[in-house]
Amino acid sequence: MTHKHTKKAVHVRRTNAERSATTRGKLIDAAIDILYRSGHAAATTIEVAKRARVSRGAMLHQFPTRVDMLLAVARHIIEEQKRHRRERLGGEPGLKRFHAAADVSWEVHSHPGAIALLEILMASRNDRDLRKGLAPFVADWMEMRHAAAVRMAEDLNVSETPVFETLVAFQQAVLRGLAIELMFLNNPQTIDQARRLLAEYTEFFAERTMRETRNTQSRSPLLRSVGS
Question: What's the CA gap between 116 and 37, in Å, rounded?
Fold first, then answer.
């Protein structure tokens, strides 16, 4: 006679830290969704807790104030943007990476998180506490822009980073505007045409920059000093 032994599923009890992190993640995701779909005014702690299906007490435990919640959302979005760029642009320097950067930037700017972050930034104009809390994140944002300019210069094998910081600022402004237009007007064909135009300009910019660099490097030190 044989006996069959059935193993009971072992229930692993999550730690308080793990449960807290799950709750925090639900609240941040809910806040991003509300900010994206309905704007800053709708993203109250009550509405976010309701959307996340989290109790009011749990919300207050994670974020005592609305500003605390919005700052946590901003931090999460920026970190996710940095992670996405690292994963998608972590290859070897060169033209392939240079041209891929435009598509990656569009992926970042057209994501709901980017619109949510823009809502928070715009709201900070009339909220002193929010503006003060966002100062480190704005600095981090500018550091990301500088890193993108350095990466572009490496890809084209040139040393003049400032001009690429201007290019990055231009690209980001265009892509941010296109993302807003796509959300309100839902015109993907026009957006694609605009993105192609931006890509053509960027390619022209890259070719001109590399050509000018080669011409400068081919001149003698004396002629370079005269021409500068």
Answer: 9
Distance of CA 152 to the CA centre of its chain: 17
Give the start-to-end residue ranges of the domains of the chain.
77-216
Q: Which CATH number applies to 77-216: 1.10.238, 1.10.20, 1.10.357, 1.10.3470?
A: 1.10.357
DSSP 110: T
pTM of the model as a whole: 0.82
CA distance 34 to 174: 24
- Note the pLDDT of residue 157: 87
Alpha carbon distance 85, 89 (integer Å):
6
H helix or E strand, kind and range, residue 225:
helix 221-227
Query: CA-to-CA distance for 216 and 142, rounded, in angstroms?
Result: 30
Rounded average pLDDT per 10-residue block, the chain, 228 residues:
51 79 96 96 96 95 96 95 90 88 92 95 94 88 87 87 88 93 90 94 88 64 41
95-109 and 188-218 helices cross at what angle (nearest 10)?
Answer: 150
Q: In angstroms, rounded to a whole number, what is the distance separating the alpha carbons of residues 4 and 15?
A: 34
Ordered alpha helix ranges (H), 6-65:
16-38, 45-52, 56-62
Q: Are 153 and 188 in contact (CB under 8 A)?
A: no
Sign of CA dihedral 178, 179, 183, 188: positive
Cα torsion 156, 162, 163, 165: sign: positive
Report the alpha-carbon distance of residue 190 to residue 125 in Å, rounded: 31
Instruction: Determine the Cα–Cα distance for residues 191 and 189; give it in Å rounded to an integer.
Output: 5
